[in-house]
Write a structure and sequence with these properties.
The protein is an alpha/beta fold. Helices cover 45% and strands 15% of the residues. The chain has seven helices and five strands. Strands 2-3-1-4-5 form a five-stranded parallel beta sheet, with helices on both faces. The longest helix has 20 residues.
Length: 180
């Protein structure tokens, strides 16, 4: 089986981490295939500690995640990345790096700003709206909507289990996972 990276991108609170964890659990359980999950919050605390939120620092963060994902892919593993990844140039650089070694799937978790803001699990949108959190994606900083996503999921409309099934079906169709 070829290696692959599933790159889940979207606004804070869109459901990326929830989807990544559910997808990893399903793949590990149903297909007995090991998965490496690279979650944005965890990566920021360890691999990218010390980086800020300038455009340059955000792109460095995404490229670091991309490097790790490419290594997992190169060794025929599955990497699931859950990141805001707001800039198309950084996402394209990761795609090119991974595709030279295996499969790459950009999944846009396209949950609306209103829904993400209503979820606001960390209180970040409220801080951004009050000016306490500058350069916050979706409020004072842009999120460049992917124009080349293999899959688009709105977690306000599609349940997590349905979204996981959509991604798994695509991975199966491409031979990354065996048929059920």
């Amino acid at each position: 089986m070829p290696g692959a990276t599933i790159f889940l991108v979207g606004l804070s609170g869109a459901g990326k981490s929830t989807l990544a964890d559910a997808l990893a659990a399903q793949i590990e359980h149903k297909f007995a295939r090991a998965v490496t999950v690279l979650d944005g919050d965890i990566v920021r605390a360890h691999l990218s500690a010390g980086l800020g939120f300038s455009r340059q620092d955000r792109e460095i963060n995404i490229k670091r995640v991309g490097f790790v994902a490419a290594e997992v892919t190169r060794h025929h593993g599955l990497a699931i990345c859950a990141l805001i990844a707001p800039f198309a140039t950084a996402r394209q650089a990761v795609r090119a790096q991974v595709e030279s070694l295996g499969k790459f799937y950009l999944v846009h978790v396209a949950t609306s700003l209103a829904v993400c803001e209503s979820r606001d699990p960390k209180g970040l949108y409220a801080k951004a709206r009050s000016g306490q959190l500058p350069a916050f994606t979706g409020i004072s900083d842009p999120f460049e909507v992917p124009d080349a996503a293999e899959i688009v999921i709105d977690t306000a409309v599609i349940a997590v289990d349905e979204a996981v099934a959509l991604i798994i079906a695509r991975l199966q169709a491409d031979g990354v996972l065996p048929p059920s």
